[in-house]
Input
Amino acid sequence: MVHDLEKAELHLHLEGSVEPETLLELDPKLTLEEVRARYRYEDFAGFIESFKWVTGHLRGPRDYALVARRLLERLAAQNVRYAEITISAGVILWRGQQFGPVYEMLLDEVARSPVEVRWVLDAVRQLGAEPAMAVARLAANRVERGVVAFGIGGDEARGPVEWFDKVFEFARRSGLHLTVHAGETVGPESVWEALRLGAERIGHGIRAAEDPMLLDWLRDRDIALEICISSNVATGAVAALDRHPVRRIFEAGVPIVLGSDDPAMFQTTLEGEYELAAREFGFSEKELRGIAENGFRYAFKR
Ligand SMILES: [Zn+2]
Output
């Protein structure tokens, strides 16, 4: 049933989609055991380290194109019709790489895929406002060419949203949508702050479950949470699978979509997330269909 649903994937990082086999192709010196060990985390900081490690193997446009090709094949195989894929443009700049040639090759890959794709350019919170502005400019220059949103991700505790008010303002004026990773490792106040700065969707946002007023606000303003269950378990954002608040958030009437976040790094798929929601949290076929429809309803595609 899950496979037959036409799905949209709205919370998905290109760099987190690199399967161990693809990493070996990019760096033949690696071993499978090494990669698998890197893809297990003690905590959120450990995950961020591994994410950085993966990006260290993406040396230029060709490498990005290869991982995009593999990702698009896997999305098509899961009956994903539309995807908003996040690129950590902030990491590309931080590594001193050029974003332009990478993006052109990504567009070439998309042109060959049956999956309709739009892009979200993500800045790294802990690097601060200046580098984030550079990412927002890259995004603003590509609103006509497939970039629909600007986002921030990374370490919430070491990069509070309020640093980015001017960046968000610029992005909004440039015609970009805004999505913010918040309420993942930091509490509801981080989500409130993201909303204050104009976030239209929240990446994760699961800590909203601790704040009934916030749940009401999200429901009433029709702001969707991008929920990634396996991710939250793998990074320790929730203590255990059965402690995940997805059902509570859903019951509160907050619109949700399901996402795989970093599928290779969390050993999951979008279909796997739907199946998990059904198996562990009792989501019915009808509810899953509604969630799949949300993927298209809350898309940023114009
Ligand atoms: Zn994410």
